[in-house]
Amino acid sequence: MRVESGPNAGQTFAIDGPGATVGRQEGNTIVLDDPRLSRRHLRLDLRDGTLVATDLGSANGTLLNGVDLGDSRPLHPGDRLQLGDTTLRVEGVPPPTAPPAPPPAPETPRPRERARRSTRLPRRRRRPPRPA
What we know:
30% strand, mainly beta, 10 strands
């Protein structure tokens, strides 16, 4: 995200992780020195690999490519956001963060093997009587 015009012109901001907030108050991810911005003006979220802009009920509103942003809209490289006297240009969309790897499957216990030898003594066969 590059600031094209306004008090912070020339600055570049990276949108990392889940997203960022933009406004004039400290505590936002992106703090701009524009007095026409609300304290918390705009939120930028990364959803399924798409950067989405959401106006946070700002007093002066937000324009996307010259049209009122409304609630939320996806952003594309080259799009321009107008916030107060500041214009931000989307330079690229950050790559989606890889989902965490699933935990390894628990090992299934092996069934007990049968003893090959019985602990019982073998039964003795009765022998036929011997001829006399």
